Amino acid sequence: MLGRAIRSMDVMVHSSTFLLPKLHQPGHTPAKNYALVVLNQNLPRFMPRLWTHAKLRICADGGANRIFDEMFQLTNEQDYERVRNRYIPEIIEGDMDSIRPEVKRFYSSQGSQISDKSHNQETTDLHKCISRIHRSTSDHEKTNLCVLVTGALGGRFDHEAANINILYLFSDMRIVLLSDDCLIRLLPKTHKHDIYIESSVEGPHCGLFPVGAPSGSTTTTGLKWNLSEAKMRFGSMISTSNIVHAEKGLGWNGP
Ligand SMILES: Nc1ncnc2c1ncn2[C@@H]1O[C@H](COP(=O)(O)OP(=O)(O)OP(=O)(O)O)[C@@H](O)[C@H]1O
Ligand SMILES: Cc1ncc(C[n+]2csc(CCO)c2C)c(N)n1
């Protein structure tokens, strides 16, 4: 019975074509729709690209200040006002304790929906944004959706931990946490995983480790130091500073 369950494990395909200038989605690419969530940290240099690829853009509270302040310097354009008027998020969601009043007024006047959840101090602004996307996306649509979260890493560690927790809380959605030099995905143990590497923009370093609970058996191909039915847990072995050798790294999370 166990053997049958393992053999029938579906493959989840991952790729990062959203980091490329043009969104060509070859046969292996799973997600067709991108939603972008902008957090309150420095925008990554490839932000204009993500913005263009996305069908929905949500700023988490102070993330709106970042679009307002930093988008211009990431474009090659001369006209500050034009750039500011072009990048308008559809939604600004959060407890609104970080967005500046003039930024809120500006985006409100440009048609952004402002969703003030200041009464809720139990969940983070990112949680509020992802809950909204989760609620408004059918199960079928979820299979074609990938949520890109910018500014999720490289700042305050409590924020980073909360951001990683979101991957687990919403493990039925594809969510990618991004910063300028890092990308994190959850690889649910219910699946095998094929990870396609865009070597012009990502790699070669990679890490593979379980958060919260041990991984009973992990097998990989395509890495410099492959794992073979390895057990991983904090306090024992985890795989960091590994290197991607192949364009496709295949990881199998066993039981
Ligand atoms: N330094 C950081 N590192 C990582 N993520 C961050 C950081 N700062 C903000 N974020 C993310 O951006 C979201 C919005 O940020 P914002 O500053 O508006 O939050 P906040 O509610 O004011 O946070 P807090 O009250 O804890 O400072 C947060 O929910 C978090 O996900
Ligand atoms: C057990 C517990 N720990 C921390 C907070 C505080 N908190 C968590 S999310 C959030 C909103 C941040 O925008 C705040 C203030 C809480 N409510 N419950």
Features:
binds adenosine-5'-triphosphate, alpha/beta, Rossmann fold, 255 residues, five-stranded mixed sheet, 14 strands, disordered N terminus, seven-stranded mixed sheet
Description:
By secondary structure, this protein is an alpha/beta fold. The chain contains eight helices and 14 strands. The strands form three sheets. A seven-stranded mixed beta sheet has the order 5-4-3-2-6-7-8, with helices on both faces. A five-stranded mixed beta sheet has the order 1-9-14-11-12, with no helix packed on it. Strand 11 (215-221) and strand 12 form a beta hairpin. The chain is globular, with a radius of gyration of 19 Å.
The CATH topology of the domain at 31-187 comes to Rossmann fold
Strand proportion: 25-35%
The major sheet is characterized as: 7 strands, mixed
The DSSP helix count reads 8
Per CATH, the superfamily of the domain at 31-187 is: Thiamin pyrophosphokinase, catalytic domain
Gap between N and C termini, in Å?
Answer: 13 Å
Radius of gyration: 19 Å
CATH class category of the domain at 31-187: Alpha Beta
Which structural class matches the secondary elements? alpha/beta
Average pLDDT = 91
Ligand catalogue? adenosine-5'-triphosphate, the ligand Cc1ncc(C[n+]2csc(CCO)c2C)c(N)n1
Question: What is the helix content?
Answer: 25-40%
User: What shape does the CA trace take?
Assistant: globular
Order of helices and strands, N to C? HEEHEHHEHEHHEHEEEEEEEE
What assembly state would you assign to the polypeptide chains in this entry?
single chain
Q: Low-confidence runs (pLDDT<50, min 5 residues)? A: 1-6
Second-tier CATH architecture of the domain at 31-187: 3-Layer(aba) Sandwich
Function: Catalyzes the phosphorylation of thiamine to thiamine pyrophosphate (TPP). TPP is an active cofactor for enzymes involved in glycolysis and energy production. Plant leaves require high levels of TPP for photosynthesis and carbohydrate metabolism.
Main location: cytoplasm
Organism: Leersia perrieri
Pathway: Cofactor biosynthesis; thiamine diphosphate biosynthesis; thiamine diphosphate from thiamine: step 1/1
